[in-house]
Specification:
Strand content: 5-15%
InterPro entries: ThrE-like_N, ThrE_Dicarb/AminoAcid_Exp
GO molecular function, one term: transmembrane transporter activity
Distance between the termini: 79 Å
Number of helices: 10
Number of strands: 3
Structural class: mainly alpha
Keywords: Cell membrane, Membrane, Transmembrane, Transmembrane helix
Main location: membrane
Number of domains: 2
Protein name: Membrane protein
Radius of gyration: 23 Å
Strand order of the largest sheet: 1-2-3
Length: about 260
């Protein structure tokens, strides 16, 4: 009886560790196959051979058949944080190489979940300011160098607003729509003050920093990999994000139609 109890406690510990690692990877925007591969690798290296898992963007199910244990964890927030995905992957590789124990892996995953690795907000805003004119060059054949500073400033300020809204609200797609409205209004007014600026160039460059490119790529990867449920869910989320961005720009143009 004591041996069975120890075995059950150990299996519960393995399940908890695998689910925590999988949840963190989905929150970081990882593909489904990578999440499942990491969870199964942790289970195998923990000595559990008969493990199964099923992953969706909103929840993870895992079962250890040998012990008849099944647990589920809910994923409430999702973002694009490849640093978080890489950190969890690195911990799973250290566990596979026997550099850390299961207890240490569990503790370090807990630390990662408490202090999620991310770039400072000021650095993200600067990155958006640099990326906006760069994307303008990439997507627009006909552009003027005078649009560069405007695209950089509007892109950086808009991204700062986007981060602020996301921090204080849990309503999905609201941050994208409000930011797009603000971006459209400020761009149109700026181009009205400085007639040499081109609205299309600035809008395209600034808006592309918010387009869910990684989410669309991951959705296609899931679909092509046979994870149809996750692929369709991610595709729907990416499309709704794009609709929120486009709708926000449309509202801004409608409001200021007489100014243009």
């Amino acid at each position: 009886m004591e041996k069975e109890r120890v075995s059950q406690d150990y299996a519960a510990e393995v399940l908890d560790t695998c689910l925590k690692a999988g949840r963190l990877m989905i929150e970081g925007g990882s593909e489904t196959y990578r999440v499942e591969d990491t969870m199964m690798r942790i289970a195998r290296n923990a000595g559990i051979t008969d493990a199964r898992c099923f992953t969706t963007p909103t929840g993870i199910f895992m079962s250890l058949g040998e012990h008849s244990y099944t647990q589920v964890t809910q994923v409430k927030k999702r973002n694009i944080n490849l640093e978080l995905v890489d950190r969890v992957n690195e911990l799973s590789r250290e566990f596979a190489a026997k550099e850390i124990t299961l207890k240490e892996l569990q503790e370090r995953l807990k630390q990662v979940s408490i202090s999620i690795p991310d770039f400072p907000i000021w650095l993200q805003i600067i990155g958006a300011a640099i990326l906006s004119p760069t994307l303008m060059v990439l997507f627009m054949d006909d552009y003027d160098w005078i649009d560069f500073p405007a695209a950089a400033v509007i892109g950086g300020v808009s991204y700062a607003l986007y981060l602020a809204i996301k921090r204080y609200t849990n309503i999905r797609f609201l941050a994208e729509m409000v930011t797009a409205i603000f971006m459209g209004v400020i761009t149109i007014l700026t181009c009205k003050i400085f007639p040499k600026l081109v609205v299309d160039n600035i809008l395209i460059g600034s808006l592309m920093t918010l387009v869910p490119g990684v989410a669309i790529t991951n959705a296609l990867r899931d679909l092509f990999g046979g994870d149809l449920l996750s692929g369709m869910a991610r595709t729907t989320e990416a499309v709704l994000t794009a609709i929120a961005l486009g709708g926000g720009i449309g509202i801004a143009i409608k409001l200021l139609w007489g100014v243009m």
